[in-house]
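Subject: complex prediction, re-run

Hi both,

The earlier run crashed halfway through, so I resubmitted it with identical inputs.
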Amino acid sequence: MHLDTALVQFESAPGDPHRPSSTPIYQTATFEQASALECGAYDYTRSGNPTRAALEAQLARIEGARRAFAFTSGMAAVAALVRTLPAGARILAGSDLYGGTVRLLERSLPRSGIGVDTADASDLDALRSALRPETRLVLVESPTNPLLEIADLSGVAEIARAHGALLAVDGSLMSPLLQRPLELGAHVVAHSATKHLAGHGDVMAGVLATNDEALAAELAFAQNAEGAGLAPFDCWLVLRGLETLAVRLERAQRNAARLAEMLDGHPAVTRVRYPGLAGHPGALLHARQARGAGSVLAFETGCAERSRRVVESTRLFRIAVSFGGAASRISLPGRMSHASLAPGSERARRLPPDLVRVAAGLEDADDLVEDLARALEAAVRSAPVRRLGAT
Ligand SMILES: *Cc1c(COP(=O)(O)O)cnc(C)c1O
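This time it finished cleanly. Structure:
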């Protein structure tokens, strides 16, 4: 069965005698027991809930995983994963990662005695030489957010496995529809389901999916022990979003490709980052390990002030973080989603101050292209280009 079909054809309410087409929202904290000594499939929603079970089964199915777990946000999912590591362990993290993940790794984890090393995940030699004896987990994105860099996921998986470490891939930008990291050798995939999977910008949710039974047992334990499992209504919203993932992503991706093409030929744009463009250094590699370039792209103008004006001159692109929603968004990662990077740090230095991130939505492509082109013209008129770093 193709994934598009699997997204809409699934067991929405296993065991329900009324056979509802939509999964019922089991909005309950507890489930009665038959007796003091007998317990049914569910007893308390923190430990398990039928709406969450339906979502997790569907997530596992589309990810090609044995088990999937739904959490209250993408960060809660990543946090549950990294907390399975013992004190003294180290994580090797890609040098370009979602800003919230960097905050968790660099500012929260050291308190639990877990160290973090960093390497450019698109450079396998750099990654290999950054491993330490204590490295237990390698965590990467591909494409990365927001620089859209590509890592050879099979190559990274080989390096991690040879070292006896787990490979975790944050697949939020791609969704399982475009890339399935477990098939490329990753041990676990994380998603911010807030983005493409739920797809309407109205719920926070996160996912972990794995084929590793030992890891799955630890994650199930953590989900119950720490209480970060996704609430029934939010599970239902994600389930509903998943049904339209294929058509949404197809449209958003087509819009992103059209925007990338326009930007690529625009005189006010110094660089476009979109793995669907032939000129992207990781384009061929990405095409080998993914089924599309996705809905997110980034570009530079050579001038931070001009980039700010572009962002503020669009009419159809909302100035908002996130992606994967119905409406298109535009942002300055250095000032918004990645503003928490430590000033002067290597990660902050790698982030161009004039970087604009565009998350294509579901509008008509011509309208989006026209609006962004007009915003570029307006920015050029109002902010003649200035050397980067000049004030
Ligand atoms: C948004 C995002 C996250 C965090 O997910 P939340 O649902 O916002 O907690 C993690 N990784 C990536 C790549 C993201 O884009």
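The CA atoms of residues 300 and 355 lie 5 Å apart.

- K.
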